[in-house]
Write a structure and sequence with these properties.
Largest sheet of chain A: 2 strands, antiparallel
Number of helices of chain A: 22
Bound molecules: potassium ion
Strand content of chain A: under 5%
Oligomer: homodimer
Helix content of chain A: 55-70%
Radius of gyration of chain A: 22 Å
Largest interface: A-B, 52 and 52 residues
Number of strands of chain A: 2
Chain lengths: ~475, ~475
């Protein structure tokens, strides 16, 4: 049986944390006298009260959380955060419709960054900061999940490439989770602080610097400006954003190594090399294509290409140019970037390089296997042999991802949207990117969708964010029958 | 080293066969006095002369054809057939442009059925019959390949599901190939003859009956009429076509069992069951959707749904209705059918049910594996355990197929076509279907494409027809380095 009380206790703790994380917004709200003070204080108090009640009611519960409780905690965390996190939007009247508020909150916590807001700049400062904060919280949550918790649950088949060592023995699970999580949190927090300072020194207001630092490090992509990062007409801000999107897309275990000065271990990572080299090739190729299609000055074109490529590959979703305005060929290339994702163990979403790498390496090996049918042809990543079980799991993930993309697109088409918009909305939601193609291009928003479509896309964001299996396994009889 | 002379000998034999197979066209040409007699006789004589020269020059070559020669023979067979098979089109002036003639011939031999002809009915009868004959030859070729030869070469990972018994010992390969091939040929020939008789009795002219029988059994889909099967306003003809498309999409080994009265073995096939049940579900669902969108009489709507579904799933590509005219949702569903394919060991193309089944079964098992990480959870098909090597190979095939679809679509977009047309043209070429969506919908043709696009799509047809790996392995260093 499942220990529901232990789960409720964790949820209680999470709600309290959420309430505490509303305080920075309250502070900005008072500073700007933006009129949303009472709303935010009320929301924070509700979180603390409800969360506290749950937490202390079940405080005596044993900590014995097993794999199945782990799955339920992961899934329900995101649901609880979304339900409680949307209070400021609704109470303040900034987003009065519930389906809209759910969409915006899920888009925040999943670090997707798609928005139903048609005029972002109209929102009071407190709410805007809360909106950015949801992404930052979601980003932190996902790093802790993927680096510290997923390896224990065996989710997504990428656990072996994220964890530092093969796998913990069951008796030292708790201290290890805590220690790893602490390191990750420090790096995440430290980089965010550094980025606030940089953005501020480069000319943003402190408020904008803070918001954009929160949504850059989480590869979230929410902006306080309707024009997104294009609003800041400053090359140095753009290059800073590019650098930090790149870092946010790196496996945080590697960032920890970098912090410790062990740079050799970074370049030893096959995924990091694939990520870096692919970005360079994509940027050069796309910059050349953009320059060919719309000749102009070299540096701005190159910067546009670099910004858009890094933003989409890391699934951040900031934009500084309408990448669908060049040509059909370039539009489809940008569309494909929605399926990339950066590294496992980063804040980025979508498929991620480790899986692409596994597929590409295995594909070449399949030819070798055809020519030498009796030879044993193992697949190696980071110098270590990957078991057949993991290869199967990863390839199954890839196919499942594409199948959900296809089925999702069919649902959206039946709901009445044109094919390109359906493809775009589903791909960008599932990949936690933000902008897409068609009617949800880089200069559009998601306001026009029906409430059904908004809820459906929210579900896809959650599905993608939690590596599909984490959510889907809850719908299988295997999960509920197990003992 | 590779025994090129042995390969050339086989090519010689193939050319002679091609020449002989032009004689039925010559007969019709004389009967109708359609003016293409000399052209066809000339083409046949060239095939016989060139083929004979090759065959008898290398007649003394040892028959020791190994795996690598096998691959080269398979790939070059289709190229040689296309080059020699297009002579009637060019010499008669029916299709004077070489890129058009290549497209039409490759589309024929690969049983794709996409056409660059804007007015099919304008062509002389001899040429029309040759056009249908290319599909029939291609269909026969692919059954013999998949059932008798691919299992020996280990292509596509589906060999184990097609062959009757686990695998031959090397010393009795030749007699077994010959015997299996003979059975398949007899069933194929017998069913085609029966279908000529049926179509004729149901009201087609003998000429039309013959043409459509050739292109039904090969799941080719070329028609002698601009309106395709919609020209024949006869329910009984449509239902006959549906039945025989269904049979042509069945594993021919199973048809042989049926012929021998061993029906139990047919229903024991997981793939056949998946194929039959999926068709029923698709037909009912799509018929209901069509009826909902365009209310009308029940039987014609049901027949339309049935015809279109069976035609696309078996990759035949006949049409009796514009399936893109209903709604966005239904269009995308029909588009997805381009990725289905019928059974392995049939004349159909595309992905095929055995691979879909492997993916679907493995997906459910992955959840079981997550919940019970230490349990051994084997995948079984037809009651037998499928090895991890084959699962990996099949999933890799699926991903490679989708990747080629994506890369192909990018190439077509860059070549200047809109996204939907690019997706459609690539999917239908790779899947050997024929019609698609966008500007290559069921009532369109491929005439407007540039010569580059036509040659590119021809290459994709070949790639899809030969299960990707057969062609692609020739581009790898493994193949050329092996001894
Ligand atoms: K994002
Ligand atoms: K076809």
């Amino acid at each position: 049986m499942i220990h529901y009380k232990a789960i409720l206790k964790v949820m209680g703790g999470l709600m309290m944390l959420l309430g505490i994380l509303m305080f920075p917004s309250i502070a900005f709200s008072y500073y700007y006298q933006s009129g949303d003070q009472i709303t935010l204080i009320g929301s924070a108090l509700i979180c603390l009260a409800v969360g506290g009640t749950f937490f202390y009611s079940f405080a005596k519960q044993d900590q014995n959380i097993r794999k199945r409780e782990g799955y339920m905690i992961v899934a329900s965390s995101w649901v609880v955060m979304s339900v409680f996190g949307m209070m400021p939007y609704i109470f303040s009247g900034s987003i009065p419709v519930v389906s809209d508020a759910i969409f915006e909150t899920v888009s925040g916590f999943t670090t997707t960054g798609a928005s139903i807001l048609t005029d972002i700049e109209r929102l009071p400062e407190g709410i805007l900061l809360w909106r950015s904060m949801t992404q930052w919280i979601g980003g932190l949550g996902i790093i802790v999940l993927t680096v510290a918790i997923f390896p224990l649950l065996g989710i997504g088949g990428i656990e072996l490439f994220v964890a530092e060592s093969p796998g913990p023995t069951s008796d030292k699970v708790h201290p290890r989770i805590r220690e790893t999580a602490k390191r990750l949190w420090l790096i995440y927090f430290g980089l965010t602080l550094a980025l606030v300072a940089l953005y501020y020194l480069e000319g943003m207001t402190f408020f904008d610097a803070m918001n954009h630092a929160l949504t850059t490090m989480s590869t979230g992509g929410f902006s306080t400006k309707n024009a997104s990062m294009a609003y800041f007409d400053s090359p140095v801000i753009h290059y800073t954003a590019i650098l930090f999107m790149f870092l946010a897309g790196t496996n945080f275990t590697l960032l920890y190594f970098a912090f410790k000065g062990r740079f050799r271990r970074i370049w030893a990572s096959d995924e990091f090399r694939a990520y870096s080299i692919s970005l360079i090739l994509l940027i050069c190729g796309i910059a050349a294509a953009m320059y060919y299609l719309v000749p102009g000055e070299v540096e701005p074109t190159f910067r546009k290409a670099m910004f858009q490529v890094v933003s989409l590959v890391t699934t951040t979703g900031y934009v500084t140019a309408d990448y669908t305005a060049y040509s059909n060929g370039l539009t489809i290339v940008f569309f494909m970037l929605l399926f990339m994702g950066a590294c496992a163990g980063s804040t980025s979403g979508s498929i991620k390089f480790i899986r692409h790498l596994t597929f590409v390496k295995n594909s070449t090996l399949e030819f070798k296997r055809i020519v030498h049918p009796r030879a044993v042809v193992p697949l190696k990543i980071n110098g270590e042999r990957v078991t057949g079980k993991i290869i199967t799991h990863i390839m199954n993930f890839l196919l499942l991802y594409l199948m959900i993309f296809v089925l999702g697109s069919i649902v959206m088409s039946i709901a009445g949207y044109d094919l390109i918009t359906s493809f775009g909305a589903v791909a960008t939601s599932l990949g936690n990117v933000g902008p897409a193609i068609g009617r949800v291009g880089p200069v559009d928003n998601f306001a026009f969708f029906s409430p059904f479509a908004k809820l459906f896309l929210s579900f896809l964001m959650l599905l993608g964010r939690l590596e599909l299996f984490t959510i889907l396994v809850l719908f299988t009889p295997y999960f509920w029958r197990a003992n």
